[in-house]
Amino acid sequence: MEIRKTSNPEKNRSFKNKHFNNLREFSLVGTSYTLLTIILTYPVFFKIKTDIPGTGADSFQWMRILWYTKIVIKEADLAALTHDNLLFYPNGIESMPFSSAFNQILYVLMSPFLELHVIYTILWLLTFIIGAIGSYFLVKYLTDNKYAAFIAGIVFAFSPYHFSRGLYFFGAATVEWIPFCALYLMKTVKEEGVKNPIIAGIFFVLVAMSDLQYLIFMGIFAGLVFFYDFYLTLKAGKNFTYSMKQIIEKYFFFGGVAFIGVLPLTINEILIALSDQNYLKPSVSEIPNLSNDLMSFFLPSHLHSFLGQFTLDLYSNIPSWFAEKVNFIGYIVLGLSVLTLLKSKRKPDVKFWLISTFFFTIISLGPILHFNGAVTFTDSNLKIQLPYQILYNTIPFLKNCRTVGRFFVIATLGYSVLAGYGFSELLKYKPERKKLIFTIVGFLLVFEYLSIPYPTAQVNVPDFYYKISNDKDNYAVLEVPQNSNAGYMDFQYLYYQTIHNKALVGGYAARYPPNVNNFQSETPLIKELKYYSLGTKNVLQEDVNDIGTSVLNAYNIRYVIVHKNQLSGEQLEFVSDLLNKTLKTEPDVYAEDELIVYRVPGETIRPFMLLGDGWNNPENWEGTITRWISNKATLSVYSGVAENAVLKLSACSLHSPKTLEVYNGKTLQSKQIINSSLSTVDIPITLNKGKNTIALNVPEGTERPCDFPELKNNNTRGLSIAIQKIQLIDSHENISSRE
Q1: Which residues cross the membrane (predicted)?
Q2: What is the distance between the alpha carbons of residues 67 and 572, in angstroms, rounded to a whole number?
Q3: How far is CA 512 from each of CA 78, 88, 351, 401, 691, rounded to the nearest angstrom?
């Protein structure tokens, strides 16, 4: 058999050598950055079995997000991605299904083999390794200098911005795909064909799968690249029609891939943003507070191994979350960037990176200039307006971006590129000593960024949670203390849920609808345990000690878990006294974990009431809480059995007599005439087992106090009947009273 030889063996050999050299270079670079990551994040890697990187807090929430994705897939309930029923039980909460889809998918794939906290740490470490490699290849492509490229990888991946966000914010720390997207966008500008824009689109999707805010930031960067490409085309003087056709074709492919990949990740957020109840939009005050302070660019990180103790107090002047305050880029990088400006500013690529880096730096400062916490300057309290407001009013969905300071992540990439250009220029002075210069600059750069030992948090779980994890029944648990609003909860509760798999009353959400906390604020016993008070008065007359156990049973809340170490002595005394009187059972005490656990005794549910819709705010009428209704209001009544009961209340109409119709569902229970003088009314009702929705209807409609001169009241509300002292007398109480 004849063996056919290549027509050009020399070319074939050269091709093989090139690929071998590329593989060797990639392996060497990857190994070097891996070792640097292990060293510069010390002791994270060495505590991978017991700790996670950072100081806990949001990190526990992020681990819960990873876990919840697997729960949804395992139960084949994809609708639960957008409505999380395991938090803020029993109503659940609207959720962002793909906060960091890349990490969520990798967790699901790795979860059969490794524990949650180990996977979290591995993914966190990869943000440094892959991010450094991406920056290396970007700057290697731009400068054709591997020494400059390696320096650039250090600048981007190990920047104080990255270390600081990595303390809590897993999505914000997932920066690794940004340089790869930038690389292929630059290739799109410099090379013909559609391969590069397609790959750029894929990496753009990966950026979106890392953090949804980075999607918007990278989209703006891609827009700048498009205009840069257009500028180069005009400057080259090529055939305009042909050149524009090429540009449109390239960015059509980029945009098409990006759109197809991003839409499924963001459709839920887009619908919320376009709705009348856009709870994703932050308040006006949050945006300036979460913008960068100009001083933060020049102030070494509070995590710095040697300088952090001196800068910690200075950072306290900046009004932002601590992990969002740090944006130090380093004096070595600033020096190299200045060298780039002086030596290479006429080169088109350098000019692009200078402009884009400056642009994202300025945008990260937000709508007004901050310096050392101050927003007004000179004796006339001058405020310096910045360009961010223009973007805010023009870029779609930018209004939903709360942490404006994170725009600096793109600037960090820009500074790494400028540092690479500057280092290339520096080596031209002494090319024969490039290894020495590389070592010195690399050492100084690492010193400026040094943050070891990096903080870690233990992932200890109290034994009780492992105990109930073996219980396959579905029920909820109530943790005390509860969150005082939907934006705060002890984050470890969220991590404990990944062990016990039970629903939580309350929870945590960075963005949440306004009514998400209503259940905790309005439900008997749960309300008192939240506010540590029995003095929360309302129109409902109920004894929490009598109905508390019924409330917990009605909502299938099986355990109340009291965290002693998180309560003051006074709070602990109140909680213990209330639970002992209500549940009438001895709790289990886990002294080592400082837990007191009450198991809710099972019993027939006694009727209890909750206010529904249509009630005006409470008013104090000579010491008695009173609420007006308009033409309709509802009351929820829970009963363990079907029975007859009586609603007893005091009521009066606004001006003229009104008819009060009382329905249970669609069934009319009673019709009463309510006069303008306060009187007691008994309303017989028939209760079904379970939840009953009692509707109070006034067919005559409402009147406004301001329309009656004799009332001398300017109130413009539409009112009908005022109600107070609502009591529910069930059949058990009727029997007891007869006896």
Answers
A1: 26-45, 118-139, 146-163, 169-186, 198-231, 251-274, 318-340, 352-371, 404-424, 436-454
A2: 32
A3: 20, 11, 42, 14, 26
At how many degrees (to 10) do helices 178-190 and 212-236 cross? 20
Dist. CA 498–CA 65, nearest whole Å: 10
Domain with CATH 2.60.120.260 in the chain: 608-735
pTM of this structure = 0.89
Task: Provide the 3-class DSSP secondary structure of residue 174.
Answer: coil
The token duo for 516 is 């998400």
Tokens of 337: 């960037």
Q: Name residues whose C-beta falls within 8 Å of residue 679's C-beta, 6 or more positions apart in sequence.
A: 650, 651, 652
Q: Crossing angle for the helix pair 101-110 and 58-74, nearest 10 degrees?
A: 60
* Side chain identity, residue 639: S
Type of residue found at 335: G
Distance CA 692, CA 688 (A): 6
Look at residues 134, 138, 180, 137 and name the one whose alpha carbon lies nearest to residue 157: 134
**Counting beta carbons within 10 angstroms of the beta carbon of residue 616, is it exposed (0 to 12), middle (13 to 18) or buried (19 or more)?**
middle
Per-residue pLDDT reduced to its tens digit, 214-249: 999 999 999 999 999 988 888 877 777 777 888 899
* Segment 139-171, tens digit of pLDDT: 999 999 999 999 999 999 999 999 999 999 999
456 three-state secondary structure: strand
Residue 30: closest CA among 128, 107, 123: 128
Report the DSSP pairing between strands 595-599 and 658-664: unpaired
- What percent of the chain is modeled with pLDDT above 70? 95
How far is residue 737's CA from residue 735's CA, in Å, rounded to a whole number? 5
Overall fold of domain 608-735 = Jelly Rolls (2.60.120)
Burial 334-349 (b: 16+ CB within 10 A, else e): bebbebbeebbeeeeb
What's the rounded Cα separation, in Å, for the pair 148 and 109? 36
Compute the distance between CA of residue 406 and CA of residue 404 in angstroms, rounded to an integer: 5
